[in-house]
Amino acid sequence: MEKWGNHTRSTSSKNQINKQAGIKKPFTEVIKANIGDAHAMGQRPITFLRQVVALCTYPNLLDSPSFPEDAKERARRILQGCGGNSLGSYTASQGINCIREDVASYIERRDGGVPADPDNIYLTTGASDGISAILKILVSGGGKSRTGVMIPIPQYPLYSAAISELDAIQVNYYLDEENCWALNVNELRRALNEAKAYCNPKVLCIINPGNPTGQVQNRKCIEDVIHFAWEEKLFLLADEVYQDNVYSEGCQFHSFKKILYEMGPEYYNNVELASFHSTSKGYMGECGYRGGYMEVINLHPEIKGQLVKLLSVRLCPPVSGQAAMDIVVNPPVPGEESYAQFIKEKESVLNNLAKKAKLTEDMFNKIPGIHCNPLQGAMYAFPRIFIPSKAIEEAKAHKMAPDMFYCMKLLEETGICVVPGSGFGQREGTYHFRMTILPPVEKLKILLEKVKDFHIKFLEKYA
Amino acid sequence: MEKWGNHTRSTSSKNQINKQAGIKKPFTEVIKANIGDAHAMGQRPITFLRQVVALCTYPNLLDSPSFPEDAKERARRILQGCGGNSLGSYTASQGINCIREDVASYIERRDGGVPADPDNIYLTTGASDGISAILKILVSGGGKSRTGVMIPIPQYPLYSAAISELDAIQVNYYLDEENCWALNVNELRRALNEAKAYCNPKVLCIINPGNPTGQVQNRKCIEDVIHFAWEEKLFLLADEVYQDNVYSEGCQFHSFKKILYEMGPEYYNNVELASFHSTSKGYMGECGYRGGYMEVINLHPEIKGQLVKLLSVRLCPPVSGQAAMDIVVNPPVPGEESYAQFIKEKESVLNNLAKKAKLTEDMFNKIPGIHCNPLQGAMYAFPRIFIPSKAIEEAKAHKMAPDMFYCMKLLEETGICVVPGSGFGQREGTYHFRMTILPPVEKLKILLEKVKDFHIKFLEKYA
Questions:
Q1: Concatenated DSSP letters for B112-173?
Q2: In chain A, which end has fewer C-beta atoms inside a 10 angstrom radius, N or C?
Q3: Between residues 247 and 266 of chain A, which touch chain B (CB distance below 8 Å)?
Q4: Per residue in B60-114, pLDDT tens?
Q5: Which fold has domain A13-42+342-461?
Q6: Scanning every residue of chain A, which has its alpha carbon at the shortest distance from the alpha carbon of B37?
Q7: Measuring CA to CA, which residue among A325, A372, A288 is closest to residue A122?
């Protein structure tokens, strides 16, 4: 409209043209290996999951012969749990009852029969929402001194961001890079004892399989951590969103909940535990649905009341994300019409990821000045990179962290986007970056070759 | 599994049986008139919106002859804005570009050509998410004294909850019940001046059309409010989620943005304004999708940076909710295949709501001891109820607010669930409740008759 001179819109259009025009770069495409966003990297959705969500979205399709009966059954069940049989209704803040029941059954199957109570399940807007909510509740209950929250270093930065937003104290414990990023209880104890001097540590966060570090904790290590939490009366927060992403021979995912129960009633009646899962990772990679759940056990009834109150402010998690979560925990089973296709799609994704995990580790370890621990699980490599002192000086002159400087150069010269280790935390004087293994195999190979060439040139330049 | 005695699950089942068994009640059905949840009350989704979201969810349907071309076009456009053409990818934290462009075009059409910049549009997880985020940013920028946030009384309790969570100061201004819940600038000034003694008032929240009060502000009143905000350098926060819900003759929705621009550059270059919209209300009633947007203008670039950072912690709004929002701002237009059905469905919902608004007002005003202002807009009645002093005494003996006592009795005796006015705030010594007008007409009539019978008996009992 002429009247307002259309000034704002035209500025915006100009920006977009600038973006498109750009400056000539030595690459044709930016490869976003910085974020665990499977579909954006070309992974195809699981057909069954999308069929069920589409049926729930547009129930006229329940009469269509092109949808399988098992998908229709799932959709009918979910719709029966919705007010007015519509995804458009609010649900209870905690999520749809029948989906929470399916989550509980899934956990029982996964954990070899350890009981799970739907009342302890909260559907969430992705795992992040649950983690933020629990941290908020635990931190706000603090007394005089500020609440300490123990997190691994390196960590997924949601934790540091949430802790700082809540004005709590971040208590770092370091994973052991020399030992395949293992979690060592002595290090937990060191961190806790030092922290007690200046805060009130109440929460211990674990990420297993690790993000960005990709390690998978063994049973013994989990038992040690649980014993430590029991001894020190710490609330355990187990981020287990990569539970389906385990690749290395001899590695297996054990949930904290399962091990807790196997350690006996002294533990499972006392240790407070929240664990998190999501639609975003695993083999489905449905990040955009913002689906997730948390299971919270041994939560004090009063705190539980506060949690429900807090969750009710955001009304309810997105209902199509709840539906997607239902299919993650309640996929087709043998004998059902969709089983064959489902298992084929699932295994294809997971086998590919396993192949890419090995490929990435192997290729990184052939590059001089790069060392990469085995990618036992999750979907990232977190290689350690040697940065020559001349490059460190130049980074400092640009007021940049040395690994940020490295990653910027990598991006400018190759179009490959990865995240500097300083975004996750790392031991002083060590440098890393995080890269996803999500690009298709052929593209990943090219990407790794490019990193190799870049790195060798970088070493030469700053020798 | 026997090993764990299945104790948790069996407790849960027992609870459910108790819920089902219950105690014999003098009604057959609970009518939930407490929450603005249209689909749960039987309203049907808008076909076109669901078709587009289903097509985006399961793109195989793009080949199906049973979906109209205009829906397919919308779906293709949205998918092109998604990483890997999938709803399962993360989007930018601010939301998908092409949807933000559609929102900007919608605002320009709505506001008679006042320009809107897609860069100022943020897609959100329902309107609540946007409101909480903006409040957090504005409050955290505070200096020595705590930030005051002015809110109407009665208000939608999201505001009081967010303010208390952020440890800010709630500054009440009272809507004028005698004058159809009008907003009076003298009252704003009184509230502001008193508040300056104990806090730093920085934000003025307006809900228009009003929730729970249903008034629609006229142009003069909006101009006065904008002038006041300009004068006092207050950040204006305009909750306009009921912008499509205007029923009374002679009432019209005016956006704050439009009036701001019409007041001239001194205003539109200086007054900071955030306005909110949602998929949940209007004629679509898609609460479960958690779709929404906010437009923020004149935000300081530094604060804008903080906002983007804050929003990025939750990664992105649910993508199917973003798609639903797109259809709300970009529905079928004359000449398109789906237009006739769309406009029929939309008008049916809105005409029905208008009819129910009038019916509710009329029926309430026939009940002795109840007075109800005209329901000019939104989807609630907020009648004032006379509660006899004997009932007030009995409520106090039960440690209940008198209107809570009244609403509990109403629920117990009739199965009708409404929300006591004390949940929204009201002038000392006055009592109200909020009731939605969403039940179907015939059911609403029965409901209002039941309230009438209950109220008359209540007056007799406590005379």
A1: TT----GGGEEEEEHHHHHHHHHHHHHHHT--SSPEEEEEEES--THHHHHHHHTT-EEEEE
A2: C
A3: 261
A4: 999 999 999 999 999 999 999 999 999 999 999 999 999 999 999 999 999 999 9
A5: Aspartate Aminotransferase, domain 1 (3.90.1150)
A6: A89
A7: A325
CATH 1.10.287.3510 fits A90-329, yes or no: no
What residues have CB less than 8 Å from B315, skipping those under 6 apart? A126, A128, A287, A290, B90, B93
The reply to whether A95 touches chain B by the CB within 8 Å rule is: no
Residues B156 and B424 sit within 8 Å (Cβ to Cβ): yes
Establish if A314 touches chain B: CB-CB under 8 angstroms: yes
Q: Does B80 touch chain A (CB under 8 A)?
A: no
Q: B114 and A1: CB-CB below 8 Å?
A: yes
- Residue B15 is predicted with a pLDDT of 41
- φ, ψ dihedrals at B178, nearest 5°: -65, -20
Chain B window 322-361: which residues touch A at a Cβ cutoff of 8 Å? Answer: none
Beta strands in A115-159 (DSSP E): 121-125, 147-153
The whole-number pLDDT of residue B312 equals 86
- Whether B1 and A86 lie within 8 Å, measured CB to CB: no
Q: A-B interface: how many C-beta pairs under 8 angstroms?
A: 220
Q: Judging by beta carbons within 10 Å of its beta carbon (0-12, 13-18, 19+), is residue A399 exposed, middle or buried?
A: exposed
pLDDT, tens digit (0-9, with 9 covering 90-100), for A216-268: 999 999 999 999 999 999 999 999 999 999 999 899 999 999 999 999 999 99
Are the beta carbons of B161 and A89 separated by less than 8 Å?
no
B288 touches chain A (CB under 8 A): yes
Closest CB to A9: pick one of B40, B117, B286.
B117
Averages of pLDDT over each 10 residues, chain A, 463 residues:
42 41 74 92 97 98 96 98 97 96 98 96 95 91 80 93 91 95 96 95 97 95 97 97 95 97 96 98 97 96 90 91 98 97 98 96 95 96 96 95 95 94 93 96 94 95 92
Within an 8 Å CB–CB cutoff, is residue B130 touching chain A?
no
Q: At what angle do helices B97-110 and B69-80 cross, to 10 degrees?
A: 120
Q: Tell me which chain B residues have a C-beta less than 8 angstroms from the C-beta of A320.
A: 53, 57, 288-289, 318, 320-321
The structural domains of chain B, with segments of one domain joined by +, span: 12-42+342-461, 90-329
Contact call for A53 and B57, based on CB within 8 A: yes
Q: Is the ipTM here above 0.85?
A: yes
With H, G, I as helix, E, B as strand and everything else as coil, classify residue B55: helix
Give me the residue label for tokens 């009852």: A97
With CB atoms and an 8 Å threshold, state whether B288 touches A318. Answer: yes
Mutation target to probe the B interface, by most B beta carbons within 10 A, among A15, A86, A349, A436 is A86
